[in-house]
Design brief:
By secondary structure, this protein is mostly beta strands. Helices cover 2% and strands 48% of the residues. It contains 1 helix and 40 strands. The strands form 12 sheets. Strands 1, 2, 4, 7 and 8 form a 5-stranded mixed β-sheet that branches. A hairpin with a 5-residue loop joins strand 5 and strand 6. The protein is rod-shaped and about 155 Å long.
Length: 445
């Protein structure tokens, strides 16, 4: 049977009123339905031959289920003020002649007895700022029963209007609850809630591109902070970027960065100190231009890389000099830091194999283009170059000849035999003597 009289229903086809007679449309739902906020709205109907639909105030069909009494039921759980309005329960009767199809409509006025937080369901507030919350409620909401709590179970005192005044919130959910008077039975709790998000001072960390705060002297390092929404960044260098490259000018140097929230003007300042390793300088030891080595006291350096005229050729601590040019070495210490030293050795500085000169050519150069013979003692104080096509003969082949000595008096003295030149040693008891740099040898032979 109807929940209200048949006359109150809207009959969209006059034929149905005349020809169908008493309809089989059963609607137990009253024409006016009041529910407390948070309760369920239940709309039910049945029909043996008609097709039932239930629509909300926006004309959207609601899903139907069959309840325990066999009624088709639409249920809206946790009703809010937004669910207030006219709901239509409709039954469609289909005739064999489509001209006689009809739809009967049973309107239900639903009123939700609301308890609403006026500030909405979500609010952002700056850390430290006070917050006030107010409510609007239906007359059947018992004002003396209004209470506030948060999701941690803390209770709050209400003002005369049932709201909260100038309290200092933390992030979380705040719930207002009150008794709602039902049509029958005991009062039913009604409630609403709001989520408060506290905008706090930015929380961040300074990181480096290496993951460390120590670098080799003279190197650069990147300092970075994570980018946060609605914030401004300012480094002690003046940069406003989230990442900066710095090259410390002191053994230890501190950098600061301040990040402020643009909405609340809350700022956080942090600092980071970069330390430079103390890398010792590379000292070279030159052994008469025959050998070069790195002075490595206390094994400060772990590895070496030598280069001649920028072409790498050795990774030992000591090298032998065989060619004129610029020798450089890069030494690496235990921290991975490098230091470099270099020296240039000219052709005239090489420890020549016998650039022998006679007295009378002090610290000069004697070039032999033809043939010259030395058959007695010589004091070498300059460089003797046996050129292409030249021949220098040192001999002591006379019978019972006394010993002869060729005396090199410094490291620049010696005999250099160019390509195409010839040095001949004839006879016995010939001594080559060096006062300095005992590694003097014949060059070019």
């Amino acid at each position: 049977m109807w929940g209200g009289s048949f006359v109150q229903a809207q009959i969209k086809n006059a034929w149905a009123a005349v020809r169908v007679g008493e309809p089989d449309f059963n609607v137990p739902t009253p024409e006016t339905l009041q529910v407390c906020q948070g309760q369920a709205i239940v709309l039910s109907a049945s029909s043996e031959v008609g097709t039932i639909t239930i629509k909300d105030p926006s004309e959207t069909e609601l899903p139907l289920e069959v309840d325990s009494d066999g009624l088709l039921t639409a249920t809206i759980f946790n009703a809010t003020e937004a669910h207030t309005g006219t709901y239509n329960i409709e039954v469609f009767y289909q005739h064999s002649d489509p001209a006689y199809n009809c739809t009967m409509v049973y309107p239900v006025e639903v009123q939700v007895k609301h308890l609403v937080i006026n500030e909405g369901n979500n609010i952002n507030i700056c850390q430290g700022d006070p917050l006030s919350l107010s409510i609007t409620s239906h007359p059947d909401i018992v004002s003396t029963s209004i209470s506030w709590s948060d999701n941690n179970g803390n209770s709050f005192s209400t003002n005369t209007n049932g709201g909260l005044t100038n309290f200092t919130p933390v992030s979380g959910t705040y719930i207002v609850t009150a008794d709602c008077i039902n049509e029958v039975g005991s009062p039913t709790p009604a409630s609403d809630e709001i989520t408060v998000t506290l905008i706090e001072a930015p929380n961040f960390e300074i990181t480096t591109s290496t993951g460390d705060t120590q670098i080799c002297a003279g190197e650069s390092i990147s300092l970075m902070v994570n980018e946060l929404p609605n914030t401004t960044i300012e480094w002690s260098t003046g940069s406003t970027a989230s990442a900066i490259d710095v090259t410390p000018t002191a053994p230890t140097q501190t950098y600061t960065v301040t990040i402020c929230n643009a909405i609340c003007a809350l700022c956080t300042t942090k600092e980071i100190t970069i330390e430079q390793y103390n890398t010792p300088a590379v000292e070279l030891e030159n052994n008469c231009n025959t050998q070069l080595s790195v002075i490595n006291n206390d094994n400060l350096f772990q590895s070496f890389q030598w280069a001649l005229n920028e072409i790498e050729f050795s990774n030992t601590n000591i090298i032998t000099v065989q060619t004129a040019g610029t020798y450089s070495v890069t030494a690496t210490d235990a921290n991975g830091c490098t230091a470099t030293a270099s020296t240039t050795i000219a052709t005239d500085d090489l420890p020549l194999m016998g650039n022998i000169t006679t007295t009378g050519f002090p610290y000069g150069v004697l070039r032999i283009a033809g043939e010259e013979t030395w058959d007695g003692n010589k004091t070498v104080a300059a460089k003797v170059i046996v050129e292409n096509g030249g021949v220098l003969v040192i001999k002591n082949d006379a019978p019972d000849a006394p010993d002869i000595t060729i005396d090199f008096i410094d490291q620049n003295s010696g005999i250099y035999v160019e390509k195409g030149g010839l040095l001949k040693i004839e006879g016995e008891n010939i001594t080559l003597k060096a006062a300095e740099c005992s590694g003097t040898y014949w060059r070019g032979i």
